[in-house]
Amino acid sequence: MDIHTLYIIAYATSTTSCLGSCAILLFLNYGNIETNPVYLKARRILAFATFLVAIGLLVSLTTRKWQPVGWDIASFPVTLIASSQTLLFTFSLILLFNEQYATRQRILLHATPSLLFTLAYAGACLIWKDHPVYAYSEWKSLVTNPPSLIRTLYLLAYIIQSGIYAKLFLHERHTYLSLLGGVKTEDRWLKLGQVTSAFFLASGIGLCTLSLALNPHLPHEITVTFLFTVFYFAFGIFYANFSSTYRDVRTRIREQNSAFSPPAGADMEELICYLQPDDDNNRLFKDIEAYFQKEQPYLDPDFRISDLPRTIGANPHKLSTAVGRATGLTVQDYVLRLRIGHSADLLLLPENAERTIEDIAFSSGFQSTSTYNRNFLKLMKTTPSRFRSRT
Asked: Which parts of the sequence belong to the HTH araC/xylS-type domain (predicted)?
């Protein structure tokens, strides 16, 4: 078998595998499961990452005109694909156990270097010619060429980013594992060891991709392409079955006869909090109640719920679980009811008869009258004006 045939087979197989993995992640539901929105969101991110690789493989074949031409040193497309894959895999894995951290804003923030390098490289190529380099002696002589310099800097930036992603993942994993101390269970699957293994496996594949930009030889490229075939298909199967972990945790929560079930979109950290002893949650909720009764921070329109965990000195997931198990509400809904209750008390006081609805709304912690009226009607089944006129 000649190198041309092997080259075509490698790329065709890997592309098919990536597209198959994408289909599995998007459309395969394993058994009769509880569909968790956090888990489905992670699957969609991974499906997008896998689809990008499939598109990259097809574009590579097209631009090379189906001929076995190796990538050059510090190839920009290779670094871009490796960087985007590492970013998406990192946040999709963190998302499984800490949704509050894996926000769209943070993903875009970490994607900023790649976006800036892409714009800089595209602009430089419009002015200067980007010379393909296949030997390190040539690369050193052309490193002052702006496109070559940008490619080299992007390569270094990706290596630094990989270290940042590893540190980030391990930090969030440590936070999650710290919650297990209060859970009396011997179930090893709660430690999510398979997620940790998946992260380092994905990081290894990212470094394999990066090696294409450091070792521009066709045999190496074909080997890495075959690794893609195995990795992406296996990862698709793994995630299609990961829903069983959510299902098992929810089953355990129901077995504890919890007064309220966790929210449908609860991530693994929040589910773990529901497995902790009731005494811990009751004690924390009493601390929250005492703080609200004494300080009444919710009456400040600028009060942010995100500041509450730091003020109380509790993990955000533990805090939301304590409120959820005591009231059946989210922290946001709990604060909303406190504000509406306070405004109702103000409306009933005779000395407030001349105060406007807008003034009452602002004094109750609302930033706009429309938001106040909408939520008052939702909870009290009447408008503030009608509620006041009844007294």
From this structure: 282-390
Q: Say how far residue 171 (Cα) sits from the centre of its chain.
A: 14
CA distance 359 to 118: 51
Are 91 and 187 found together in one domain? Answer: yes
Give the range of the structural domain holding residue 82, as residue numbers without chain letter.
71-231+244-259
Claim to verify: residue 304 and residue 385 sit in the same structural domain:
yes
Does residue 112 sit in the same domain as residue 153?
yes
Asked whether residue 226 falls in the same domain as residue 330, the answer is no
What lies within 8 Å, CB to CB, of 386 at 6+ separation is none
Q: What is the pLDDT of residues 299-337, one digit of tens each?
A: 888 888 888 888 887 778 778 878 887 787 888 888 999
Q: Quickly list H helices, the chain.
A: 3-27, 37-63, 76-97, 104-127, 136-141, 146-179, 193-211, 218-241, 243-255, 268-274, 278-295, 308-312, 316-327, 331-348, 357-363, 369-380, 384-389
